[in-house]
Amino acid sequence: MTRILLIALLPAIVLSACSGHSTAASPEPAAYGAAIVESSGGKQITEVGTPLPQPVVVQVNDDQGAAVTGALVQLTGPNGIYLDPASGLTDPSGQFTSNISLGVTPGRYQIVATTKTKSGKNVDLKLEEIALGYQEVLGSQLNDQYCARCHNQESSPERVSNYDNLEVKPHPFTEGDTLNKMTDADLTAIISHGGPALNKSPLMAPYGYTLSKSEIQSLIAYIRMVSDPPYGAPGIVYAQK
Ligand code: HEC
Question: Is the CB of 163 under 6 A from ligand 1?
Fold first, then answer.
């Protein structure tokens, strides 16, 4: 008799254990804020399935703009994303920090950070991170090798930027306002044949002899993936929530 009862109860026990676990993951807030803002970590670029180089840090403020300690922050993201941790209380400087790995689908991953106000209203902050697939990673490496010294204004330990020496200024590939107006055919033409192919400066050299067609395709895939605002052509995979 007892054994039958136990068997009948078992599924219910497992289920309640599960839901108990998920509520235990979010601590009770000790304070409430009025706004949530980004401190750092948005708009990072990484390979699919790898951790973002920097953690994501958000801050909860009260209605005077002062940091709130002990407010609950919850992060949600698309399938396949790994948030470590996904929720927690803000520290003495009002901040909550999470280490994030993106999923295996290339695309833009939107992360939503939420905190509750005293009246129980949710306030949200949306952040975006980019996961490069195989082709875009190849494009990113080619960019480092051939293009970044002119198209990136910042110098790194490995690369001194040539940008300031250029009479005509190229655009960083993240500058969607300019690059999104160019078709794939335009990009192929200027990369293969140089600036004059589009009536632009010959400071933009032709790469059609140096790079193969598929390498140029990879560069274009990379340029499309990192553009801000996003390039909306079909073929770009948006990570689904
Ligand atoms: C020696 C410096 C230099 C290098 C290296 C270089 N570019 Fe450029 N690029 C330019 C300049 C200068 C322009 C702007 C030409 C104009 O507006 O008349 C330009 C323009 C462009 C444009 C048009 C959009 C814009 O920025 O105005 C694209 C696309 C482009 N380059 C892609 C590339 C790619 C891809 C590579 C690497 C394979 C590369 N460039 C390497 C200097 C460079």
Answer: no
Q: Residue 198's CB: how many other CB atoms inside 10 A?
A: 14
Per-residue confidence band for 157, with pLDDT thresholds at 50, 70 and 90: confident
Determine the distance separating the centroid of ligand 1 and the alpha carbon of 18, expressed in angstroms.
55
Question: Is the minimum distance from the CB of 78 to ligand 1 under 6 angstroms?
Answer: no
Q: Rounded mean pLDDT of 41-51? A: 94
Which protein residue's CA is at the shortest distance from atom 13 of ligand 1? 170
The H-or-E segment that residue 122 falls in is strand 122-132
The answer, yes or no, to whether any atom of ligand 1 lies below 6 A from the CB of 147, is yes
Domains and CATH numbers, the chain: 35-132 (2.60.40.10), 134-226 (1.10.760.10)
Determine phi and psi for 96, rounding to 5 degrees: -125, 130
Model confidence, pTM: 0.82
* The pair of three-digit structure tokens given for residue 2, joined into one six-digit string: 């007892």
| Integer Cα distance of 106 and 82 in angstroms | 15
148 lines ligand 1 (CB under 6 A): no
SS3 33: coil
Tracing tokens 């909306």 back to the chain, one arrives at 232
Taking the CA of residue 219 as reference, the ligand 1 atom at the shortest distance is 35
Contact 38, 125 (CB under 8 A): yes
